[in-house]
Structures are given as structure tokens and as C-alpha cells.
């Protein structure tokens, strides 16, 4: 029971960290293209339903996918050049990684879109209210 708890804790905390690192490494030009392609293929196999677990065991399929994803992430990071991994980890700690930049850009775009929708809703509300 304790080992299952450790596994779930590791998946809950390590998977997002490893995914963030892998995202940044995928965008890093120092990582060989064949390593990126192998990782992309591994993730593709994991998310497509080629491996069919029995439907009678509902939770096993999800845990299996998480465990395979964690394995693929760790193998990918291990295959990347050590200097690239160290640099990207430092950038993540400092909040200046590619992931952080993309996240900030996404937040800006979402804010602009939300503001635009609020503006459109407010102006359409005034037009319908004026016609009464």
C-alpha cells in the first residue's frame, strides 16, 4: 500500500516537472533531432489506443498511461545532452525557460481575447437596451 502511495505521489509531483523539462528540451536546438523524434513517437504510441487494456479494470489503464508517460519522459531526458539539461533546469528555476515565456505569451493572448469578449458583450448589451 505504501509503495502505491509513493508511486502516486511521484507521478503527481514528478510528472509535471519532467513534462516541463521535456517541453523545453524539445525546443532546444542542442538536442538531436532523432532524440526528439523518438520521444514524439513514444508519446504518440502512449496516447493512441494501440495498447488495449481490459475494460473490466477501470483505473489500471490511466495509471498505466501515466507510468508509461513518466518512463518516456525520463528516457528522453536521459538521452538529451547533459549540458542542455543542466541549462534548461537552471532556466526553469529562474523562471526564464521557453515554457515560462510561452506560458506568459498564452496568458497575454487569453487576456486580450477575454477583454475583447467582455467589450463585445458590453457593447451588444447597450445596443439591445437602447432599442427598447
**Whole-number average pLDDT?**
81
Q: Outline the low-pLDDT stretches.
A: none
Which range best describes the helical content: under 10%, 10-25%, 25-40%, 40-55%, 55-70% or over 70%?
A: over 70%
Q: Count helical runs.
A: 5
Q: What is the number of E strands?
A: 0
Strand content: under 5%
Q: What's the SSE blueprint?
A:
Blueprint (H helix, E strand, L loop, with lengths): L1 H25 L6 H15 L10 H22 L2 H13 L3 H33 L2
Helix pairs in contact: 1-3, 1-4, 2-3
What does this molecule look like?
The chain is mostly helical. The chain folds into 2 domains: 2-94, no CATH class; 97-132. 82% of the residues lie in helices and 0% in strands. The protein has 5 helices and no strands. It has helices spanning 2-26, 33-47, 58-79, 82-94, 98-130. Helix 1 (2-26) crosses helix 4. The longest helix has 33 residues, at 98-130. It starts with a helix and ends with a helix.
Q: What key attributes describe this structure?
A:
2 domains; 132 residues; DUF1232 domain-containing protein; single chain
What is the compact description of this entry?
The chain is mainly α and 132 residues long. The protein contains five helices and no strands. It folds into two domains: 2-94, no CATH class; 97-132.
